[in-house]
Task: structure prediction
Amino acid sequence: MLSIKVLGPGCARCDLLKQRAMQALEMLAEEEPALEATILHVSDYKEISWYPVMFTPALVINEKVVSAGYVPTVSRIKTWMREALDGAHHSTPPQQPLLHGGISS
Result:
């Protein structure tokens, strides 16, 4: 099960991140037909403040912040989703969130 959250006020970059996350999820679902996932856009600043992000949009997969302040590629998002799925199957210690700025195309 994947829990995916896009954190941001609802700007164009937030919408683009949500669109890319959905594309990555569709690609992963082709490989994993039994995949269950939810995508939620969190725009409430109070709820966003619960996560260690300084910039939006941010992407959270299974409660781990994987990007903040930029829109990663569909391929990179899919890789993070795959890692989250693999981590769910294998008990691994949590890693520090990846936080950096910039825009990927």
Notes: The CA atoms of residues 26 and 48 lie 25 Å apart.
